[in-house]
Structures are given as C-alpha cells and as structure tokens.
Amino acid sequence: MDKRFIPLSPAEAIQARRALTEELAADPSMPIPAVIKKIRTSLRFTIAEYAKLCGVSARTLQDIEREVSSPSLATVEKLLRPMGMVLSAVPKSSSR
C-alpha cells in the first residue's frame, strides 16, 4: 500500500472497488494502458508495489502505462488479476 495515502477501511475498500468496476464497465473501449493505470491508482499502489503484486517488472508496468510498449496478452491478464478482471473482446459500436 502506498504510504502517502491513509489506508481505507475494509468497507471503504469494497466501495472503492465497486465504483472502479462500474466505471470500467461503463467504458469498455478504454485503452488497456489507461485501464491498468486506473486500477493501480484506485487501489493506491505505487508502480513498484503493483508490479510486484502482479508478477511483472516495474519497468514493464511503467512502459505499459506510458504507452511506450505494448503488453502481451499474458501480461495484461496478470495486471488485471488483482481486480478479478479478465481480458475480453468487445465489438465496436455500429452507431456511427
């Protein structure tokens, strides 16, 4: 947990996760790097902490969030796992 933040109570943590889940579900076209950064910052982790939790290097996570590199599907799955999310395809909207 990032020491710059006051820890959330268990009830507050659950509410924050629910709000994050709803926000991400409302915008399924959000780019993967933005989703990953949103998850990490909402859970109040530093890049190093979140990378360690997910089993990827901090440099890899930093490069993905900055959109310097494209993650593999396996890496994306590792980075989504703390939120209980999985990678899936969403058809483009035909309302153009």
Structural write-up:
The protein is mainly alpha-helical and 96 residues long. Helices cover 54% and strands 0% of the residues. It has five helices and no strands. The chain is globular and about 35 Å long. Residues 36-90 form the HTH cro/C1-type domain.
- The arrangement of helices and strands along the chain is HHHHH
Structural class: mainly alpha
What is the average of the pLDDT values? 88
Overall 3D shape: globular
Query: Total helix count?
Result: 5
In short:
This protein is an all-alpha fold and 96 residues long.
Note the main attributes of this structure:
96 residues, mainly alpha, Helix-turn-helix domain-containing protein, Cro/C1-type_HTH, Lambda_DNA-bd_dom_sf
List the helices and strands and how they pair.
Layout (H helix, E strand, L loop, with lengths): L9 H17 L5 H11 L4 H8 L3 H8 L7 H8 L16
Helix pairs in contact: 1-2, 3-4
